[in-house]
């Protein structure tokens, strides 16, 4: 295979919030998908193939995924507070990419930011709803911590992985009390 061809390798890995679908290209981690049941997995892989122009290949022992798998396991074990992964941003663009990059670099572990505050950080103070749309389109949740974005009045806001998953991630980071199981 020539080096200029797009390669997309994927695997499903266990986590503290259920199975995650991870996919990576040579540029870096390209997606993290929640609730990686077969139907969800297949839909995500189909979208990846279409958007990236390459057929995703299952690769449980992928060198491209080794470090993301290691860092996510450490995060869920409470041993990692900051990801240092190569990220492939090709599934986001424009305002969404700008907001997600600010979120990834500017909202540390154990803290939260309001939708409006994040909008102001990227120079669009009136764009709280657009920030919400960017969070909903985040292809790299957990690693790009959209769970740390909350409503200004203290509400959790929305979350693509479900509000219980958001509560679990915030509890892991010490922001909310541990959920009762």
TrEMBL record:
This is Methylated-DNA--protein-cysteine methyltransferase. Gene3D superfamilies: Methylated DNA-protein cysteine methyltransferase domain, Winged helix-like DNA-binding domain superfamily/Winged helix DNA-binding domain. The active site is at residue 146. Involved in the cellular defense against the biological effects of O6-methylguanine (O6-MeG) and O4-methylthymine (O4-MeT) in DNA. Repairs the methylated nucleobase in DNA by stoichiometrically transferring the methyl group to a cysteine residue in the enzyme. This is a suicide reaction: the enzyme is irreversibly inactivated. It is found in: Cytoplasm. Keywords: Cytoplasm, DNA damage, DNA repair, DNA-binding, Metal-binding, Methyltransferase, Phosphoprotein, Transferase, Zinc. Its cofactor is Zn(2+). Residues 95-175 form the Methylated-DNA-[protein]-cysteine S-methyltransferase DNA binding domain. Pfam families: DNA_binding_1, Methyltransf_1N. PROSITE patterns: MGMT. CDD domains: ATase. Transmembrane segments: none annotated. Its main location: cytoplasm. Residues 10-88 form the Methylguanine DNA methyltransferase ribonuclease-like domain. Belongs to the MGMT family. It catalyses: a 4-O-methyl-thymidine in DNA + L-cysteinyl-[protein] = a thymidine in DNA + S-methyl-L-cysteinyl-[protein]; a 6-O-methyl-2'-deoxyguanosine in DNA + L-cysteinyl-[protein] = S-methyl-L-cysteinyl-[protein] + a 2'-deoxyguanosine in DNA.
């Amino acid at each position: 295979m020539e080096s200029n061809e797009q390669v997309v390798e994927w695997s499903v890995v266990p986590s503290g919030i259920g199975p995650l679908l991870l996919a990576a290209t040579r540029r870096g981690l390209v997606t993290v998908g929640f609730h990686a049941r077969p139907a969800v997995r297949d839909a995500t892989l189909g979208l990846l193939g279409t958007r990236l122009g390459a057929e995703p290949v299952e690769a449980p022992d992928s060198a491209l995924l080794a470090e993301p798998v290691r860092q996510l396991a450490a995060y869920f074990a409470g041993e990692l507070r900051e990801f240092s992964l190569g990220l492939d941003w090709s599934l986001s663009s424009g305002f969404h990419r700008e907001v997600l990059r600010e979120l990834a670099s500017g909202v540390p572990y154990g803290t939260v930011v309001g939708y409006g505050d994040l909008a102001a950080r990227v120079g669009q103070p009136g764009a709280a709803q657009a920030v919400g749309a960017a969070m909903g389109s985040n292809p790299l949740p957990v690693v790009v911590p959209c769970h740390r974005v909350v409503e200004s009045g203290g509400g959790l806001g929305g979350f693509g992985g479900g509000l219980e998953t958001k509560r679990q991630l915030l509890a892991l980071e010490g922001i909310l009390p541990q959920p009762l199981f």
